[in-house]
Inverse folding.
């Protein structure tokens, strides 16, 4: 029987049968040749579990490719609104029933606040959790301070479920090029989940500490289950990173083949004890991958039972994931490859597991929060993508799971509704799906608001549109077919152009809040608006900064405003100074009585500047709590009310 050896192994033939006859010429030793492994790519098609041997080959091939291209690393952070119909507001979320991590949590009596770290010339105060109790006079008193592990880095957000407080923290590594071998990062990235028992908030303490190795993509909570999605790059010490010659490449390959992947898989650490988050054979790899393909990036979805922290389950997928969208039933991972969006569907709840994959032309874009462009209803995924460079084309695609494939079953524009979504050159600034309707805001110089009819998922239609100055970056659904838009007011100014021509340029003039009437979807109307000159609101790019209390279609909204104004020359030498406040709005959404009015603005006292993007608030009945920096203020929901604090 003849034994065949791969070309990339060293073979030293002794063709003369080692007779010792010096007159017989000896062949030249064969040159060691590294294997031919395909460049890493994102596959179109489904994923599958293939067993330990094939999974290890795919992952090790990916590590080998990465050793030749060491800088190609992904660094990621990071639909009906959850209006509170009780007597206090909760986190403003994208989907009802799907909680999102936020800086502040409130149960009606206790406030839990994640603080910034503070550096001074003589002291450092690490981030921690303040536990504030509401007193009978509505003032606040700190009754506890929850310490966090200093190694876990910044606080990403909090979740409060019954007697469990979960604190999500993320430490990001520093990439180093100090040496050409060894890890491509400095310290390994870690995501921490600190679980506190808040049965007695004043005595709350750490009940469980979990750490997941990897970069935080995002997290969500549905009922008692917390879902934490992380990405992890398999890395090996001692490789010749960026190897160019065949001998060095082969040395890398052989070392990788001899490695135990168990040591390279992401770790789950529980109260100081570590174990692999999952086995290699548990990972899903592309069905279309050949023996010469590989990818060393893992996407891990870890489910933690907040009522029983020992109940931890993790799902492992290979591939690229930039964003995720979560409905009460499903989680969708999305990534971009060659002008397409790759989607992977995961079922949640008791049937937690991988379901299907698919692709759609175009990308989710950067101007809007990507997951607002997706919505699942009755088994159909509605997704809006954009394609093109100078002349963008926007398309709605309706997808349905068929086996392990996500298949397109309808698009818009279509033959029965051929008009495009947006005019040439316009980008999408806001998307909101509400039941059987979709709303899309595009902008270049004017703000067209498009109303989409999705009642027949197999035949979506554009029902109407509205053009007004400015644009909305965030859309909030109201009762009785009203809609609140939050964005920027815009004026068109003529600038000198070439020759005798002029160029029209949109100039942002300040934060704008619009109230839309969509009762006649073919003819949407803006019926009221407010403008805050020279200001903007963080709600434009982070919906969690908005607080909402809905009581019988009478809404109260609180949103932070940040302005930068030039003060008088004799006072501050013409420097720009910030002005932070909390705008309080009353909105009536009763049929035929819709109105929008500014109640007042609350201004936090003190001269120290804190970025307004992390400002938060809680509305409780006729009272309002305002978080700016690490301190809280309290006031009543009425014009010219006294503001008390800081607490």
């Amino acid at each position: 029987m003849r034994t065949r050896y791969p070309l990339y192994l060293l073979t030293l033939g002794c063709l003369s049968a080692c007779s010792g006859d010096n007159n017989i010429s000896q062949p030249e030793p064969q040159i060691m040749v590294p294997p031919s492994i395909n460049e890493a790519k994102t596959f179109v098609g489904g994923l599958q579990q293939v067993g330990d041997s094939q999974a290890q080959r795919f992952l090790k091939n990916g590590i080998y490719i990465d050793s030749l291209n060491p800088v190609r690393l992904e660094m990621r952070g990071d639909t009906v609104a959850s209006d509170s119909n009780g007597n206090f507001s909760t986190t403003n979320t994208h989907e009802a029933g799907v909680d999102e991590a936020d800086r502040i949590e409130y149960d009606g009596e206790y406030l839990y606040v994640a603080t910034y770290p503070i550096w001074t010339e003589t002291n450092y105060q690490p981030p921690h959790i303040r536990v504030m109790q509401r007193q009978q006079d509505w003032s606040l008193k700190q009754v506890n301070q929850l310490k966090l592990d200093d190694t876990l880095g910044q606080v990403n957000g909090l979740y409060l479920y019954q007697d469990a407080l979960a604190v999500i923290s993320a430490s990001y590594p520093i990439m180093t090029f100090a040496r050409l071998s060894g890890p491509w990062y400095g310290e390994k990235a870690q995501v921490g989940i600190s679980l506190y028992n808040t049965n007695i908030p004043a005595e709350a303490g750490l009940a469980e500490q979990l750490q997941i190795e990897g970069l935080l993509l995002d997290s969500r909570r549905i009922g008692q289950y917390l879902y934490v999605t992380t990405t992890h790059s398999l890395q090996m010490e001692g490789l010749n990173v960026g190897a160019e010659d065949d001998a060095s490449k082969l040395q890398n390959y052989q070392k990788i083949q001899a490695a135990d992947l168990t040591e390279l898989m992401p770790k789950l650490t529980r109260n100081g004890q570590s174990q692999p988050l999952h086995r290699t054979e548990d990972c899903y790899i592309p069905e279309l991958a050949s023996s010469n393909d590989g990818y060393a990036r893992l996407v891990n979805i870890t489910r933690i039972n907040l009522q029983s922290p020992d109940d931890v389950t993790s799902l492992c997928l290979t591939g690229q994931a930039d964003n995720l969208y979560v409905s009460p039933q499903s989680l969708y991972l999305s990534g971009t490859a060659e002008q397409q969006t790759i989607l992977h569907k995961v079922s949640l709840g008791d049937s937690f597991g991988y379901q299907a994959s698919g692709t759609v032309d175009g990308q989710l874009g950067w101007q809007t929060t990507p997951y607002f462009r997706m919505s699942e209803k009755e088994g159909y995924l509605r997704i809006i993508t954009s394609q093109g460079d100078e002349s963008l084309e926007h398309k709605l695609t309706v997808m349905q799971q068929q086996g392990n494939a996500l298949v397109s079953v309808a698009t818009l524009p279509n033959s029965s509704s051929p008009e495009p979504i947006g005019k040439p050159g316009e980008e999408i600034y806001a998307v909101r799906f509400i039941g059987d309707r979709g709303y899309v805001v595009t902008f270049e110089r004017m703000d067209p608001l498009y109303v989409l009819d999705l009642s027949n998922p197999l035949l979506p239609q554009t029902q109407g549109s509205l053009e007004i100055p400015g644009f909305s970056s965030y859309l909030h659904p109201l009762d009785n077919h009203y809609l609140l838009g939050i964005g920027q007011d815009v004026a068109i100014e003529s600038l000198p152009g070439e020759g005798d021509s002029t160029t029209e340029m949109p100039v942002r003039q300040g934060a704008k809040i619009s109230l839309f009437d969509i009762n006649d979807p073919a003819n949407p109307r803006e019926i009221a608006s407010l403008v805050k000159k020279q200001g903007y609101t963080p709600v434009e790019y982070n919906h969690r900064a908005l607080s909402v209390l809905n009581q019988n279609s009478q809404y109260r909204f609180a949103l932070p405003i940040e302005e930068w104004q030039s003060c008088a020359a004799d006072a501050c030498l013409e420097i720009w100074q910030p002005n932070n406040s909390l705008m309080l709005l009353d909105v009536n959404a009763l049929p035929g009585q819709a109105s929008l009015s500014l109640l007042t603005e609350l201004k936090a006292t003190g001269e120290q500047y804190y970025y307004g993007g992390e400002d938060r608030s809680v509305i409780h009945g006729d009272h309002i709590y305002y978080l700016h920096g690490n301190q809280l203020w309290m006031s009543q929901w009425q014009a010219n009310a006294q503001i008390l604090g800081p607490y």
Notes: The first strand starts at residue 47 and ends at 48. Confidence is low (pLDDT under 50) at residues 1-24, 71-81, 174-186.
